[in-house]
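Entry 14. Structure prediction run on the chain below.
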Amino acid sequence: LWALSEGSSDEVYLSADNFTVRHFRSGTINNNQTAIAPNMISLTKDEIGFHLKNFNDPNYVMSSTIRDWPADGDVDLGEAVDQAPFVDVNNNGCYDPENGDYPFILGDRAIYMIITDDTPEIPGDFSSRFKMEAQIMIYVFDLPNLEYIDQSVFVRYNLVNRSSRTYKDIQIGIRSDFDIGVPTDDAVGCEPNSNVVFAYNNDFNDEDVGMFRGYGQYI
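Output returned:
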């Protein structure tokens, strides 16, 4: 994820990762500037359905994934209250799955994670961080009869401004490092009308290069 903007005082704000500079880290904004809880949670639609059918059963053992869904931040550690999305069945404003609340996910299987640019300043970096959290939902559908959906991975970014500043003209991008086997003979292209970018091997032989193994003539 890359983000660029100017602040109200025309200061430049940039948060971006590449091979040598990392502006983002795992976890929420908190007092420790580090991840304070597991930061990647995988959950299925079937698990949620099972929870909804059984949460009132006295013999029901709730899965740790549903029990520990990071819906509410730990304010004592400096986290914001609103974190992972959930369905508040009893409308009491807090996540209590023992009373029927459940995580909100997209697709048939989802991975939820949070990253933030709340990291120490890097010497020689002439820009400032946003102090934002990127709440990320990665999800897939189990639809074998719809190959173009069944073999697709969807990613939804919810960007939350945790600072007291107002930003303008925010530009968002995704840095993609395509490797089709050995990357030294790769090329990229785009189809603007479909909003599609793609990568491909630019000849008919993806040869080995040093320690890297190519696909050969079967790209």
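The two ends are 28 Å apart (CA to CA).
Filed with the rest of this week's runs.
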